[in-house]
């Protein structure tokens, strides 16, 4: 039995906006400006998997420069002070926060995995047997950033999350 | 590409005329930042073009949007806490005695923004009034968008984080998708209306308590005085007015006196003062 | 005053630490509930405040809260969950287990300070 998932583009966009307001752009001067370009390039990405009542992934993908700026904003440091570890931590936490909020909108009994960070383009890591059900694509400070939600088609493809 | 002097003057005149809000010079950057999304939404190439078009051809809907964008809607649950504590500790016990025959209290949240103040009042009353009592809360604001939001009573995760104790979040809200919605138990006692405080106020039943916080700060002294005089007519003789932490009636309207209310202060209309009292009928 | 920041994300620990340090807390970090309990066992003075993530390896935040509540020595600690878990039922569970407050991620710095003010943990005037 497939479950109707009630997370649409608007919901995702709103969560993304809240992440910006909270951590990446507290002054409200540097929003993520939508491009609606599903194929925009990325250089790094992070993801969390959801299993249980719904199976799929939430992916945060962006350029290295955007990741560096996100880490700098998150950790209150200068972009050139950001280490590789800072960058990975922050990318992971961004996927975790969006994923956690998406999970809350799914039917009860969904579980969130710990985040995975890959310092390679999102295109290198297409999730098998999944389809994109919504996504927010945009430019932040001139750099590409996207957050997308992927649903696993077959339930036996369930990942070992949690 | 910041606003030119004439463009800034055009915008500040508009918001002063329509909302009595004074934009200090030097706020050009802020004004532009707030207008970028408005310009984008109406399909203008940029703020300059949007304003040029509006000057050529006045458009009330677009003017409304500018006012909405430039009014600060900043608010939170139980903002400043003390006024709400004063209600519970001091004012409601008194009203429970003085209104024992009608068992009903009426509150006004003037400048209710997205509704947090009005619903915080509802939670306070819900918890403090004995059973069998009724309450009615009216929220008003000049912004159509804010009134709509307040009526919808749905708040984002970030909004419910702000000042709302978790125990009350789970008791008085329910999840609605990505949002939290105020339960119908509270919503049925709260209504919202569009209202410009600086225009003549519509006839309303007088209120026992008026919260009019963080809105007078945007007006000049003459406007503050007019608003305070009009508000006095809508306050019951033994009612209470709460202003924002940076606001006062002192030196503006002597018909009010400042009184202690718990750990904060509130304002009451002086007894024996004809203004308001006589016209209240 | 002392605060313990318990989260498996180093980035999140840094954010939380920055906020409580601003409020004049000395911050101690732990990467999961077990590590936090171990640290607490060795601390001569119990911290006034713990900010606790829910989903962590080894011991999650809810188990940590349950453990703290069962230990009379830790009775005075104020426990605040700081998590992406935002179902109503989860909040109810955490409060029932003994958490005093609950902050949903993402949170702004202002929101976190307001929550701590609710708990009487922000000295007046420190509200920047
Ligand atoms: C800063 S908010 C205050 C909200 C709430 N009272 C509080 O203290 O949290 C100010 C509100 O005043 C409203 N406002 C500004 N000018 C107004 C006017 N002339 N008449 C009525 N409302 C006005 C704005 O739309 C905004 O929602």
Automatic annotation (TrEMBL), chain A:
<protein>
    <submittedName>
        <fullName>Chemotaxis protein CheX</fullName>
    </submittedName>
</protein>
<dbReference type="InterPro" id="IPR028051">
    <property type="entry name" value="CheX-like_dom"/>
</dbReference>
<feature type="domain" description="Chemotaxis phosphatase CheX-like">
    <location>
        <begin position="46"/>
        <end position="128"/>
    </location>
</feature>
<keyword id="KW-0145">Chemotaxis</keyword>
<dbReference type="InterPro" id="IPR038756">
    <property type="entry name" value="CheX-like"/>
</dbReference>
<dbReference type="InterPro" id="IPR028976">
    <property type="entry name" value="CheC-like_sf"/>
</dbReference>
<dbReference type="Pfam" id="PF13690">
    <property type="entry name" value="CheX"/>
</dbReference>
TrEMBL record, chain B:
<keyword id="KW-0808">Transferase</keyword>
<feature type="domain" description="CheR-type methyltransferase">
    <location>
        <begin position="1"/>
        <end position="272"/>
    </location>
</feature>
<dbReference type="GO" id="GO:0008168">
    <property type="term" value="F:methyltransferase activity"/>
</dbReference>
<dbReference type="Pfam" id="PF03705">
    <property type="entry name" value="CheR_N"/>
</dbReference>
<dbReference type="GO" id="GO:0032259">
    <property type="term" value="P:methylation"/>
</dbReference>
<keyword id="KW-0489">Methyltransferase</keyword>
<dbReference type="InterPro" id="IPR036804">
    <property type="entry name" value="CheR_N_sf"/>
</dbReference>
<protein>
    <recommendedName>
        <fullName>protein-glutamate O-methyltransferase</fullName>
        <ecNumber>2.1.1.80</ecNumber>
    </recommendedName>
</protein>
<dbReference type="InterPro" id="IPR000780">
    <property type="entry name" value="CheR_MeTrfase"/>
</dbReference>
<dbReference type="InterPro" id="IPR029063">
    <property type="entry name" value="SAM-dependent_MTases_sf"/>
</dbReference>
<dbReference type="InterPro" id="IPR022642">
    <property type="entry name" value="CheR_C"/>
</dbReference>
<keyword id="KW-0949">S-adenosyl-L-methionine</keyword>
<dbReference type="InterPro" id="IPR050903">
    <property type="entry name" value="Bact_Chemotaxis_MeTrfase"/>
</dbReference>
<dbReference type="InterPro" id="IPR022641">
    <property type="entry name" value="CheR_N"/>
</dbReference>
<dbReference type="Pfam" id="PF01739">
    <property type="entry name" value="CheR"/>
</dbReference>
